[in-house]
Write a structure and sequence with these properties.
single chain, 323 residues, alpha/beta, D-Maltodextrin-Binding Protein, domain 2, six-stranded mixed β-sheet, two-stranded antiparallel sheet, 10 strands, 46% helix
Amino acid sequence: MRVLYRIAVVAAALVVATPGLAAQQGDTFPTKPVRFVVGFSPGSATDFTARTFGDKLSAMWGQPVVIENRSGAGSTLASASVAQATPDGHTLLVVSTSFAITAVLQGKNLPYDAIRDFRAVSQFGSTTGVMVVPPSLGVKSVKELIALAKEKKLLFGSAGAGSGLHMSTERFNLAAGIRTTHVGFKGQPEMNVEIVTGRVHYGFPSLGTSMHFIKDGRLLPLAVNTPKRSPHLPEVPAMIEILPNFERDAAHALMAPAKTPTSIVQKISRDIAKVAEMPDVKERMHVISFDLAPSTPEEYDKAVRKQIEVFGQVAKAAGLIAK
């Protein structure tokens, strides 16, 4: 009986101590360098977001935030590596909408489960995408591009099969009633170069990665994919002015391995919100027309699940997966 009594006392003590232990984990985090794993190449829009927030969080935490670019396979290489990482908050995944899209397109073929193996941390915000074409294509408006696509075979670029850019363009194609051929690249920088050369005919890069090509006349902007016009390109129409049924999702966010303690996840989320309020961060993200919109872990969890549902519907309509 004494043995049973001692076991009961120890068990009760553990129950009482666990909340305190969880809180302590959040208070002491981080205890070593933090890795932000990005599924796209350096210079991409997601990479820019990771580095902007990573620099500020590093100063706030007193620990380096190391950006690790693992591009390829529609960002699944990066996701797989984080899914298998130690769930202590020191290895995190910076995602775009490709995270949800890949879950739809590849499903059970993935080496991880997008819902079961990860937990949401926070959204950073959303990029402004811009439909661009090379001047050599000879079109000067979205309507002219649609007409040309109905006459000849056109190629569109993206940051890889299953990337947010891929799905955004498929959503445009559906809204426009055209069929074109997808060409995937490792990231936006490579895609932009191929559109500049005319080897690929159009795409939806972020404004941040394409603006210098637009300014020097090597890319022609036809429309932005935001609900309203961008202050950086006020003469360029929003896509919904031309195709009212066009929708897009271009969020960047942070995910953690599923078993990462809640206290750590909440601390990171709170700190991201603090960084988003910094004047220099607001200015830097405004320059690339990025809309800051940090969220709680619970809010972004709901957003990811909604994305998977919506992209599933789009993929079926575009013939990317079986109906």
